[in-house]
């Protein structure tokens, strides 16, 4: 592997759905010849021993995570204030370290909008990573217009109406906060959206975990609206494989322990028979919803693998609300784990469908394996992703009326066993092919990655490290 003699500094947002793609990007750029330094918060810090080819630098921002504040945006605001000073000190230290290669640029999560000012103060080029879809970013960038035209804040009476500027989205699909909750003042959230969009426009380039064939329209419009180059180089977890010529994806960045017993359990199930269920790392269910999910799964008569993260059920440690003997009565047809090796589950031949909260990583990972989805979006970008899965790519179904056991059972059966789902499965297999093609030589992501590497190397960093002998 030819080394480029340049170091890149990456700064992931400390949430699972953001750490994963940032570390995947770090691996991609490492295989392209760059040395990698990761600056990370002490909260949710990645495990350095799983990535021994990077150097890790913790900052002491003094934060703890509360689910509510993640959902109402308070967490984001805290991150963007508490990290400012420790991040600046850490970056200054790295820039002045002459024992390492010179730093070419900073790559920060787009939600860390404060990093624009810091990078500018060091005259260091800054790229921005969008960890979710280009389409949802495009919608966020249009928030001023959507507010002017009365779509936002979302009113209960309008939620089913179409957003004519963004077909096929309905008002309730907009990535607003938290869907239709009037108890939260949306003004602070809008301010954050403006900041993250504007500070992205002021960066040296936007890196997206997507590919052209998937989100062509949003990428084209963003390209017209943003005065910076855009690099759709995803799907990252597959790009790593293509870049490293290795047959297995790089080490996991899971913040929780992955329960490998689910892989041996999957091996005991018939081909494409299992519905894999996970609602990601942030979403919560109340106890009623949790029980509806449990009974919907049980009544569907399909084998299921269900990730119940500790804390998923509001007010419970783990499985306490489940009726006594629930799993035992299913005679091995159901398996529940606290956290799964999701990429291995999705690639497993026994997995037939994915019931997901439509987080972008999960959506993309499912698309890459041709696994059709059932979507239960909970917040922000997930609503857009779910609508695209069901109405644009048409590779899944959305549960439209909340979580109710009869509808869950019906939807699972419709997707897993009924004839009318054949077309969905066919389209999912075709989309998988497109996801693979974009990574091949001269594929769109392959070319975008080459162009990103050239762009990074073409930018001169005028930071004080430039005065090195
Ligand atoms: C959050 C937001 O919810 C999401 O909408 C946004 O796009 C990114 O940040 P999260 O809720 O965690 O992320 O969902 P998702 O984007 O799907 O990311 C979850 C990641 O955790 C995936 O990479 C998935 O493979 C991994 N995962 C999930 C596991 O490894 N094991 C599990 O059991 C569940």
Task: Provide a descriptive summary of the structure in words.
The protein has 469 residues and is an alpha/beta fold. The protein folds into two domains: 7-154 and 186-234 and 439-467, Rossmann fold (3-Layer(aba) Sandwich), CATH 3.40.50; 261-434, 3-Layer(aba) Sandwich (Rossmann fold), CATH 3.40.50.2000. The chain has 18 helices and 13 strands. Strands 3-2-1-4-5-6-7 form a seven-stranded parallel β-sheet, with helices on both faces. The model has no long low-confidence stretch (mean pLDDT 92). Bound molecules: uridine-5'-diphosphate-xylopyranose (UDX). Uridine-5'-diphosphate-xylopyranose binds at residues 15-18, 20, 131-132, 254, 278, 280-283, 307, 339-340, 342-343, 359-362, 365, 381-382.
Indicate the structural class. alpha/beta
Proper CATH architecture of the largest domain: 3-Layer(aba) Sandwich
Strand order of the largest sheet: 3-2-1-4-5-6-7
Radius of gyration: 22 Å
What is the domain total for the residues? 2
Please report the distance between the alpha carbons of the first and last residues: 27 Å
Residues in β-strands, percent: 5-15%
CATH superfamily of the largest domain: Glycogen Phosphorylase B
Q: Enter the CATH topology name of the largest domain.
A: Rossmann fold
Number of helices: 18
Residue-averaged pLDDT, rounded?
92
At the first level of CATH, what is the class of the largest domain? Alpha Beta
Low-confidence stretches: none
């Amino acid at each position: 592997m030819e080394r480029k003699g340049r170091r890149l500094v990456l700064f992931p947002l400390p949430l699972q759905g953001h750490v994963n793609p940032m570390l995947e990007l770090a691996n991609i750029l490492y295989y392209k010849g760059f040395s990698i330094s990761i600056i990370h918060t002490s909260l949710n810090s990645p495990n350095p021993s799983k990535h021994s080819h990077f150097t890790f630098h913790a900052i002491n921002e003094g934060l703890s995570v509360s689910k509510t504040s993640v959902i109402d945006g308070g967490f984001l605001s805290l991150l963007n204030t508490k990290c400012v000073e420790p991040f600046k000190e850490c970056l200054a230290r790295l820039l002045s370290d002459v024992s390492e290669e010179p730093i070419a640029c900073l790559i920060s999560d787009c939600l860390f909008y404060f990093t624009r000012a810091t990078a500018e103060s060091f005259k260091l080029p800054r790229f921005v990573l969008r960890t979710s879809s280009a389409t949802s970013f495009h919608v966020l960038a249009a928030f001023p217009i959507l507010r002017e035209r009365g779509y936002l804040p979302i009113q209960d009476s309008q939620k089913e109406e179409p957003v004519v500027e963004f077909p096929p989205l309905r008002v309730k699909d907009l990535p607003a906060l938290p869907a239709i909750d009037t108890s939260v003042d949306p003004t602070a959230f809008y301010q954050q959206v403006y900041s993250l969009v504007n500070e992205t426009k002021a960066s040296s380039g936007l890196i997206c975990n997507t590919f052209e064939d998937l989100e062509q329209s949003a990428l084209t419009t963003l390209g017209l609206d943003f005065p910076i180059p855009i690099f759709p180089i995803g799907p990252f977890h597959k790009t790593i494989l293509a870049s490293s010529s290795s047959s297995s994806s790089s080490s996991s960045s899971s913040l929780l322990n992955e329960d490998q017993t689910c892989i041996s359990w999957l091996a005991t199930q018939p081909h494409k028979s299992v519905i894999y269920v996970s609602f990601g790392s942030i979403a919560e269910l109340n106890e009623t919803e949790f029980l509806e999910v449990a009974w919907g799964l049980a009544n569907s008569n399909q084998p299921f693998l269900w990730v119940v993260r500790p804390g998923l059920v509001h007010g419970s440690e783990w499985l306490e609300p489940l009726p006594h003997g629930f799993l035992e009565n299913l005679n091995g047809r159901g398996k529940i784990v606290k956290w799964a090796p999701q990429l291995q589950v999705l690639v497993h031949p026994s997995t037939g469908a994915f019931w997901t909260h439509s987080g972008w990583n999960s959506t993309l990972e499912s698309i890459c394996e041709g696994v059709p989805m059932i979507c239960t979006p909970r917040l922000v970008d997930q609503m857009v992703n779910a609508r695209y899965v069901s109405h644009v790519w048409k590779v899944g179904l959305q549960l439209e009326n909340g979580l109710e056991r009869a509808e869950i059972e019906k939807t699972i059966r419709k997707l897993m066993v009924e004839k009318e789902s054949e077309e969905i499965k066919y389209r999912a297999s075709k989309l998988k092919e497109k996801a693979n093609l974009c990574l091949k030589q001269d594929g769109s992501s392959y070319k975008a990655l080459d162009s990103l590497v050239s762009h990074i190397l073409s930018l001169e960093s005028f930071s004080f490290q430039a005065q090195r002998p």
